[in-house]
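Data availability (excerpt). The following record was deposited with the supplementary files.
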Amino acid sequence: MNSGDTEGRVVDGRFALEARLGDGSMGTVWRAHDLVLDRPVALKEVRPPDPGLAEHHPEAARALRARVLREARALARVDHPHVVTIYHVVNGEGDGDGDTDVDGAGDTGYPWLVMELVTGGSLRERLAEGPMEPAAVARLGRDVLAGLRAAHGAGIQHRDVKPGNVLLRPDGRPVLTDFGVAALHESAALTVTGALMGTPEYMAPERIAGADGGPESDLWSLAMMLYVAVEGRHPLRRRTTMATLAAVLKEELPPPRRAGPLTGVLTALLVKDPAARPDAETVDAMLAAAVAAPPPRTAVPTPTPTPTQASEPAPTLPPTRRGAAPRRLVIGLSLVVAALTAALVWALLPGADSTGDADTGVAAPSAGVPGRQTPEAREPQKAKKAREPADLLTPDGIRQAVTALKAETGTARVGGFVVYPAHISAQAMVKGSEKRYDTYTYRVGQGVSRAPIGGTLMDGQLPVEMDTFDWDAVPELLRRADRDLKVDRPTSRYLLIRPPNELFGSAAGLTVYLTDDYGTGYLEADSGGRVTRVVPAGS
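Predicted structure:
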C-alpha cells in the first residue's frame, strides 16, 4: 500500500487517516480521527522489515500476524499511565469479520493498532534541544521504568527502548510506545536473514550477541537512554551500524560527566553481564534517590560548625578524590570482567538489611490465658527468625537461599547467581534446556519469588551447579576485598558467580565487588575461593 495514496482514506470503515506522524522499520504511524467516537487517535500498521513477506512467505506472514495480535491484545490489558493505551486492533486480513483494511478493499496483510494520540512530541525531539538536568532525567527514568515493569508483569518485553519511542504528554509526562519489536522478534528469521530487531545504539549487548534477553535487557536500554538524555551524547555511537554494534559489545564505556546523582544507576546498569545488573525494584530506589538528591554545589571552605549548624545536613558535593586523575570504567566483552558497580545504592532501599520487626501474626490463644501465645506457639516463629541470617553475604546465608531456591525451582543449575546483603538473584535453568532460564529472587524474611519473564543465556555461556562453589571461602574473599580493593567506605558490596564460558575457555568462578562514590574495585577467585585477580578501584 502506497502511503501517499493512504492519506485521507478510512481504515476499517471508522478511522480516517489525516497526517503521517512518523516512519520506522516496523511501520508508519498516522494521526487519524475515530469517526464513531469523534476523537483523535494514532494508527500504526505493524509490518516486518521485508515488504515481500506476505507474497513470498504467506505462512510466515500469517504466523507473524497472529503473534502481533497476541502481543497487541496483551498490551491492551496493560493499564498504566506511562504505557501507550491500545484502543482497538484491526486485523488486516479482510476476512469478512468486520476487520477490514482501508475502505474495506483488499488485504493489507498486517494489523493496524489504534492507540491514544500523545501530543507533546517525543523525547528524541526534546533532546535535540540539548541535554536535561539529572533530576529531570531521573524523574523521567522512574516513569518509564514504571511502564516497563507493568509491561514485564504482563509478559511483554519492549526490546526497543529509545528516545524516539518515549512520547511526552503536554505536561512532560513520558509514555512508552512502539512495542512492535517485541511482537516481531520471534519472526526475525522469517523476514530478513540476520536482521536485528531493535536499534543498535540502545540494544543490550546480550541481544546483539544473539540471546533473547529478559527484563534486564530492557533495563540496559533504559539506562543508555538516560545516559544520552543527561550527557547530550551517545557514548558508543560510531559512524556505521557494524561499528556501533562492535562498540556496544566490547568497547569501554566512558564515565558520565554531567550525571551527578544519576551516575550510580547508569554505571550499575550499563554492564555487559545481564546477571550483574540490579533488578527493577533496586533501580527504582536508585532513581528515587537521584530525584531527591540536592543539586551539586561547588565546594567552599566550611567554618567550624556551631552547635546549631552541626544539626543541619551537610551539602551534597560532587564526588571527587583528591589528586586522582580522570579514569575510564573498564567494561570488557568477557563476562569475567563485565559486571562493574551493580546495585550501587542497594543500601538506599528501605529495610534492605533488616529482617523485620517483632512477630505480628495472631496465634491461637492458649487454654490458660485468653489472647496470649504459649511459649510453644511462639517458638517456631522466633526460632525461624533466629536461624535466618540478616546478611546473606555469609556461608550460612547463601546456603539457606540455595536450599530455598532448589526447593522452589527443582534445580540447582543456574546461569547466573548474584548475592547482595539482603537478597539473591538467580537465573534457574528451565528443565530440559541448556539455554533458557527463569529468574527468581530470594529475600531476607520473604523467601523465594519468581519474576514473570525469564531469558536465554548468552552464546558460549554454560549453566553451572550452585553446589560447585565453596561458600565457606566467602568471608575470606570479603576480608581480602576490604583490604586490597582500595574502596574506603563501600556503599555497595556483592558477590556473583561466573558461569563457565566455552567461547572464552573460562571455568566457573566467583567475583566480589566493592563500590563507593568514587569507583569500583573487584577481585576474582576460582570456584574453590582461591584469588586469581585483584583489580583495585582506580586501576
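Summary of structural features: Confidence is low (pLDDT under 50) at residues 94-108, 182-196, 298-386.
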